[in-house]
Amino acid sequence: MESRREQAESDCVSSDNYNSPIPETETETPISESTLEGGVSAFNQAQLLRAIEVVERDSFAIAQSFTSLFASLRLALSNATATTLDHMQCFTDASGRIQESVLDAATKGNRYINSCLRLNEEMKNIDGLASQLKILRRHVDSLDAAVNKLLQVP
Where are the stretches annotated Disordered (predicted)? Predict the structure, then answer.
């Protein structure tokens, strides 16, 4: 367990050295064991202030990095949401138009079917009418033949 903690602490120290370079005019003073044995009083005030400034600067850089990261994430989420909303609106419009077209086609199809049914009913009556016309035609032909005979008698 402690080896993991020591490894994590060493990772933090090494990542701080790479991520936040210290200007050449300001360098960190390493803390040696002899300084620690003497206690805090062995540090002079300037070194302590310099260490606090380094921690403050690193903390500020980390805070700016997190702020930038969250702003980027917020923008990406906003773009994804806006795109999704645009696609949903387009889908809604398209499905509405398709629904209107389907209803129109169904109405026209029903009208066509009803017209065909009416025509079918009328065609049933036409057979009787056709036979009546044939009979009427025969009567007209026989009447015409009788009139022609009367006119040719002299």
Answer: 1-32
